[in-house]
Design a protein that fits this description.
503 residues, alpha/beta, Cobalt-precorrin-4 Transmethylase, domain 1, Methyltransferase, Cobalt-precorrin-4 Transmethylase, Domain 2, 4 domains, five-stranded mixed sheet
């Protein structure tokens, strides 16, 4: 019997990548087909495997790329074709997200499916705004309703008279466009006009914004602030707790939009550090790492690495590619022999240690010139060295070591090429929303960013990880606002905090 595949109805959470469940991540990583909405965090798409077919179906108020009946037919068709299909939705698929309808269609078609719950913005949004939806001093009941009903019904099924009288907290989703109508209905049916209400848009992300008012005033406040969806609203005395426990919006980089241009695989470390500090991070990889054109030559040099006195690594990428090739050939780490190992900086050294190898030499300055200065304190004349490098690396290391009398072989482990894919729409977001800072971690990220031809955002500055990167920025007429010290990711993060006057 032919495998009918399976469809996963997956909740992608409210926006913060840290709030995505492990099961959701696993499903996305294994998907053959990803059918997704206008997600609160489009970077979820980056988790897909190579070859995954990604289909955007829209699904935001007044902007549906594909009607619901066609979405239903699509997921049934793809599942019947034997594919692992992920129907990805923001928040939870069963809370005002029509997941129940889609599950019913899959059940009627007789195809396997699984529901993967997600954290809903109805509870996460208020929590990130410092508002507990339940609190023993204020309420023992929570009511959640939608402010966006089926427009084809021609009437409202929301009983505002009942809602106005109900005790406790009320939370509603998708109601910004009808805010004045909703709050007016509450007051009309007996709710106190001075009842506190808060709205939080883009909750749990670096773009989060919260406004607070009363049922009588919030619509005017929202219009004055040009407050738009997506947002979650909380009605009730629990809103008063925000004054004491508003935590997320007090992080040091909150309100700052920062672009990360590292490779997609490497962006995570910097992005996470910045997000943890409250920044709104746009991952816009400008480069990707590929194997060298002479793969056989690279493999042969790795095979003979045990014959060298020194292994010299000048980037984490080189370390990763080297050891991937090494362990593809050898099962035993002892096959590397006993060469001494040098790393250009702390990041490269950390990557080497991941493979359980010690590092014998790290320069004080994490640049090629600093590495040569460090080797001047060693006796390297007539010693053999294997320099593991990128195809386009500067020749400073090779020439410097040769000048010290070493016998140097160049092992080209990878090459840097332009990143051509943009599945998360980062370019459009940068163009539309701008940024406060664009970070660069190598000269190649600079060159390839400017090759994109994007307009430099107004009021935006560049941040550099080190001297070579800074020099490349100056060549493009964009001197950096600061340079990391030390020249690594932790140093870059500290420099970003200092630049924005934060500690």
């Amino acid at each position: 019997m032919k495998n009918s595949g399976i469809c996963y109805l997956v909740g992608g959470g409210p926006g913060d990548l840290g709030l995505v469940t492990l099961r959701a991540k696993e499903c996305i990583e294994n998907a053959d087909v990803l059918v997704y909405d206008a997600l609160s965090n489009p970077e979820l798409i980056n988790w897909t495997k190579p070859g995954c077919v990604k289909i955007h179906v829209g699904k935001r108020a007044k902007d549906h790329t594909m009607p619901q009946d066609q979405i239903n037919a699509l997921i049934v068709e793809q599942t019947k074709a034997g594919k692992s299909v992920v129907r990805l939705k923001g928040g939870d698929p069963m809370i005002f997200a029509r997941g129940g309808e889609e599950a019913a269609e899959l059940a009627a078609a007789g195809v396997p499916f699984e529901i993967v719950p997600g954290i809903s913005s109805s509870i996460a949004g208020p929590a990130y705004a410092g508002i507990p939806v339940t609190h023993r001093d204020h309420n023992t009941q929570l009511t959640i309703f939608t402010g966006h009903e089926d427009p084809t019904k021609g009437y409202s099924s929301i009983d505002y008279a009942q809602l106005a009288k109900a005790p406790g907290t009320k939370v509603f989703l998708m109601g910004v466009a009808r805010l004045r109508e909703i709050t007016g209905a509450f007051i009309e049916h007996g709710a106190e006009a001075q009842t506190p209400i808060a709205l939080t848009r883009w909750a749990t992300t670096g773009s989060q914004k919260t406004i607070v008012g009363t049922l009588a005033t919030i619509a005017d406040i929202a219009e004055a602030e040009n407050f738009s969806s997506p947002a979650v609203a909380v009605i009730g005395d629990v809103v008063k707790e925000r004054e004491k426990i508003n935590w997320f919006e007090k992080r040091p980089l909150f309100g700052k939009r920062i672009v990360v241009t590292r490779t997609r695989e490497q962006a995570g470390e910097l992005s996470k550090a910045l997000r943890d500090l409250g920044a709104d991070v746009i991952e816009l990889p400008t480069i990707r790492i590929e194997l060298p054109e002479d793969r056989q030559g690279f493999a042969e040099m790795v095979t003979h690495a045990h014959e060298y006195d020194w292994l010299v690594f000048t980037s984490p990428n080189g370390v990763e590619k080297f050891f991937d090739a090494f362990f593809a050939t050898y099962d035993d780490a002892r096959s590397l022999g006993n060469p001494r190992i040098a790393a250009i900086g702390a990041g490269t050294a950390a990557k080497i240690r991941e493979y359980r190898f010690a590092v014998d030499l790290i320069p004080e300055r994490f640049v090629a010139e600093g590495l040569i200065d460090a080797f001047k304190k060693e006796s390297v004349e007539n010693l053999t060295m294997l320099w593991v490098k990128a195809e386009e690396s500067r020749e400073v290391v090779g020439e410097g070591l040769a000048a010290l009398g070493a016998i140097v072989d160049e092992c080209i482990a990878y090459r840097t090429v332009p990143e051509t894919e943009d599945p998360s729409g980062a370019k459009a977001k940068l163009a539309e929303e701008g940024a406060d800072l664009i970070t660069f971690t190598s000269g190649s990220t600079v060159d390839h960013f400017f090759a994109l031809g994007l307009d430099w955002p107004e009021g935006c500055v560049a941040g550099s990880i080190g001297p070579v990167t800074s020099s490349t920025l100056r060549k493009h007429g964009m001197p950096p606002a600061f340079e990391a010290n030390p020249h690594d990711i932790p140093g870059l993060v500290k420099s970003i905090l200092k630049h924005f006057g934060r500690k």
